[in-house]
């Protein structure tokens, strides 16, 4: 799980460094949007603001995710999922391993979000240089679509842990009820 902790920051650094490195070589007009066929549909003038907006959104998003991640051990109610009420009823010693899984889930979400933002920036760079990015655009859309079931599966892991801890807690409180 260590790599999931470091990877979002590496992806963010890669996005910021790559964006800064290619900025001088960009043409005066940048794509604002690219269609599924890979053709540029709208353009905008080149400026540090227009090219740097996506990296700034990525920095803000990562800092927000990190803030939530750091607050989560003290405030597990920040993590919204179907078993939240059951989690909050558990004693701290049974919550601790569940919170570790929740933190891992947050790191995975951060990684996937940054991969998508990095891919979008690469598509825009490629399109700005005159390339057609149709296949890349479709791949980004597919990654976004496939992320949803993956995240639900990972979230189910948290829910399963809550259910198991709830059973342990109930058996401790009422040992004869088995």
How confident is the prediction overall: mean pLDDT? Answer: 89
| Overall 3D form | elongated
Backbone structural class: mainly alpha
Which range best describes the helical content: under 10%, 10-25%, 25-40%, 40-55%, 55-70% or over 70%? over 70%
Can you tell me the residue ranges where pLDDT is under 50 for at least 5 consecutive residues? none
Strand arrangement across the biggest beta sheet: 1-2
Radius of gyration based on Cα positions: 21 Å
Order of helices and strands: HEEHHHH
What's the domain count?
Answer: 1
Largest sheet: 2 strands, antiparallel
Distance between the termini: 35 Å
Number of strands: 2
Note the total helix count. Answer: 5
Strand content: 5-15%
Task: Tell me what you see in this structure.
- The protein has 178 residues and is mainly α.
- 72% of the residues lie in helices and 7% in strands.
- It has five helices and two strands; from the N terminus they run αββαααα.
- A two-stranded antiparallel sheet has the order 1-2.
- α1 packs antiparallel against α2 (48-71), α1 runs parallel beside α4 (92-128) and α4 runs antiparallel to α5 (134-173).
- It is elongated, with a radius of gyration of 21 Å.
- It starts with a helix and ends in a 5-residue tail after the last helix.
- The mean pLDDT is 89.
